[in-house]
Specification:
Layout (H helix, E strand, L loop, with lengths): L2 E3 L6 E3 L3 E2 L4 H10 L5 H13 L4 E3 L7 H8 L8 E6 L6 H15 L4 E6 L8 H13 L3 E7 L3 H9 L6 E7 L11 H8 L2 E5 L15 H11 L4 H12 L12 H8 L8 H10 L3
Parallel strand pairs: 3-4, 4-5, 5-6, 6-7, 7-8, 8-9
Antiparallel strand pairs: 1-2
Helix pairs in contact: 2-3, 2-10, 4-5
Length: about 280
């Protein structure tokens, strides 16, 4: 596994992380009925990723998986794991942010959160109020770093301008080989400001796993050249090659998938093949 500093945090994260969003039915079942279908399978998947050297886990209060993360990290050295979670947009007023953070801390059985992120921007709550609460959480030692998710460039700049003491260290956006509009404005801004990027849907919500979505000659040539198993490893390796600020978070759906994803960091795609891929999947 390759490790890089996560933005400006000083923490060395694995270049491949693990996401714990499963599906809307999981969220509804967990929230309203206490049902968590496949919980052991998902817990085993996260555990396998940790054993393979992945130390970056992303969750959210919305997902209903914070307790699953708690189970997966039990008995491990907390300071060796980078846990990211998110506050939902209906909890962005000052007091609600603090209460939501306290719930997440209880859910995960931890005294601090490495990265606390605003899941979606709000049209009703001014970003200044939310960021005032986020900075207070840093001051109180409940969180270590502040991130955002699903913010366009303008909102990203507004969020940073609302900060009085600290900086935004990361952003999350859908970004993958088949969805590259992120490269037009946000990625250059992140590079300029050393903001880490957590691409969600790094496998195109399953599209890039399907071999039929790829030019067959290019795909077969790369599988043979790099002696790799599947398309997911190509898509993930392409992402981590784009910038040392990029940390894709594919879903930790099963043990085998997590181990395959981890292996995407075991080789390096060459510049010629990057060009071929980006020609095949233009912006």
């Amino acid at each position: 596994m390759i490790y890089r500093e996560f933005g400006k945090t000083g923490f060395k994260c694995s270049v491949i992380g693990m996401g714990t969003y499963y599906d809307p039915l999981w969220i509804l079942g967990a929230k309203f009925f206490g049902l968590k279908k496949g919980e052991k399978k998902h817990t085993d998947a996260v555990t396998a990723g940790l054993d393979a050297g992945i130390n970056l886990i992303d969750t959210a209060e919305l997902y209903g998986t914070e307790k699953l993360v708690s189970q997966s990290i039990s008995g491990r050295k907390r300071d060796e794991i980078f846990i990211a979670t998110k506050v939902f947009f209906n909890h962005l007023r000052y007091d609600s942010v603090v209460k939501a953070c306290d719930r997440s801390l209880r859910n995960m059985g931890t005294s601090y959160i490495d990265l606390y992120q605003i899941h979606f921007p709000s049209k009703r709550v001014k970003i200044d109020e939310t960021m005032r609460a986020m900075e207070k959480l840093v001051d109180d030692g409940k969180i270590r770093h502040i991130g955002i998710s699903n913010f366009n460039l303008q909102r990203t700049k507004e969020a940073q301008a609302a900060m009085k003491k600290y900086e935004i260290v990361s952003t999350q956006m859908p970004y993958n080989l088949s969805r590259r509009e992120f490269e037009k404005d946000l990625l250059p801004y992140c590079r300029e400001n050393r903001i880490a990027v957590l691409p969600y849907y790094p496998l195109g919500h399953g599209k890039l796993i399907d071999r039929n979505s790829w030019p067959q000659d290019l795909l077969n040539g790369m599988l043979e050249k790099y002696r790799i198993k599947n398309t997911a490893q190509i898509a993930l390796n392409w992402l981590i090659t784009k910038s040392d600020l990029i940390f894709p978070i594919p879903r930790a759906s099963s043990r085998d998938h997590v181990l395959d994803n981890a292996a995407a960091a075991d080789w390096v795609i060459d510049a010629e093949d990057v060009v071929k891929l980006e020609t095949a999947f233009p912006v």
